[in-house]
Amino acid sequence: MPASDSLIDHIFKTVRTIAVVGFSNNPSRPSHYVAAYLQQRGYRVVPVNPGLDGQEFLGETVYKDLASIPFPVDMVDIFRNSDAAGPITDEAVAMGAKVVWMQLDVINEEAAARAEAAGLAVVMDRCPKIELGRR
């Protein structure tokens, strides 16, 4: 079931820290410019990419995976394909995130069901930059 506008409004009002899984160091890639936009809108963005582990982008340290982040994360924004979204969603549940957000064209119903069963809010096939721009 698609996320309602009221759920998305609630997410934007309550989350503060967003892990961006699949972050790219290339400013022309969506994962980079969406992360930068979220940061400009006042959210703390935590880049996640094993190939960039330990480097710094957007003023934040890049972590190799969600389990390596040493502080709470409210939302996990997934910039990976639909198959990869399953294990990433499971990591988000394990770390205690409140929201799993799967980007445009990222749809994994089974992972969404597991996250919802664990009490997380789920958004699929939408972009937070686009959604914030509508508000």
Detailed description of the structure:
The protein is of the alpha/beta class. The protein has one domain: 3-Layer(aba) Sandwich (Rossmann fold). The chain has 5 helices and 7 strands; from the N terminus they run αβαββββαβαβα. The chain has helices at residues 5-14, 30-40, 82-95, 109-117, 128-133; strands at 17-21, 44-48, 56-57, 60-61, 75-78, 99-102, 121-123. A 5-stranded parallel beta sheet has the order 2-1-5-6-7, with helices on both faces. The protein has a two-stranded antiparallel ribbon with strand order 3-4. Helix 3 (82-95) runs parallel beside helix 4. The longest helix is centred in the middle third of the chain and has 14 residues, at 82-95. It is globular. 36% of the residues are buried.
SSE layout:
Layout lengths: L4 H10 L2 E5 L8 H11 L3 E5 L7 E2 L2 E2 L13 E4 L3 H14 L3 E4 L6 H9 L3 E3 L4 H6 L2
Parallel strand pairs: 1-2, 1-5, 5-6, 6-7
Antiparallel strand pairs: 3-4
> How many β strands by DSSP?
7
How much helix, percentage-wise, in residues?
25-40%
Strand order of the largest sheet: 2-1-5-6-7
For the largest beta-sheet, the strand count, sense and barrel status come to: 5 strands, parallel
Radius of gyration: 13 Å
* Spans of at least 5 consecutive residues with low confidence: none
Query: What structural class should be given to the helix and strand makeup?
Result: alpha/beta
CATH architecture name: 3-Layer(aba) Sandwich
How many structural domains can be distinguished in the coordinates?
1
What is the ordering of alpha helices and beta strands?
HEHEEEEHEHEH
Average pLDDT over all residues? 96
